[in-house]
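Database export, one record per block. Field names are fixed; values are copied verbatim from the stored entry.
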Amino acid sequence: MLPTKKQLTEHLKEKMTNQDIAVIYGVKYQKIQQLIRKHKLNTKELRKVDKQIVYEHWYQGKVVYVGSGKWNRMRRSSTRRNLEHKKLMQDGLIKYKIVKEFNEVQSAREYENKLITRYRSLGKANFNLKYDGVREEISNRGYTSTTESNNKDKPILVWKNGSYFGTYNRIIDFASEVSDQPEKLLSGISLIIHRNWRPMQGNLGGYVIKYKDNT
């Protein structure tokens, strides 16, 4: 059985990937792609791919994780740091909830912090990293020079595989979007910006990054 146009539209609004939808109906993701083309659905518009979302993961009626990022981050299990969290996602036991949408990364992160603070005070959101009231500042020890370290808060422009990916106020905002261990990416990002490194795989594979005022 395949989803109707109405069902498919709702799945896309819920930020589901084609693979997520395919699993529900027991088909290959290519079949979902065909249906999207058949119904002439605008996936970017329905998923609101330009928005930043704050989302929650629920398990057994309890919030276990709060996060933020682009539309496809909510259901991505590959970058989850906690192995139990990752397995629950892979086993289809996590329920997903979009709490709010924002135009800017910083606004989404601030709202995410507020939710995490609230839930942690109630003994929830146990899969989040340790928080002391707000998100801990992440060390930038990966930088190799004073000049690079001083530039860590400069806005950056990001492309992936030749297409514009987004603008970020800080390097750490981008790193946090593509990895749950963003501090480990900082030295690699520095090489992309300053040494023209072009990684082909991993979290930074296909990315080109430049400071906004240098373009």
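Remark 1: The two ends are 50 Å apart (CA to CA).
Remark 2: The domain at 52-121 is CATH 3.40.1440.10 (GIY-YIG endonuclease).
End of record.
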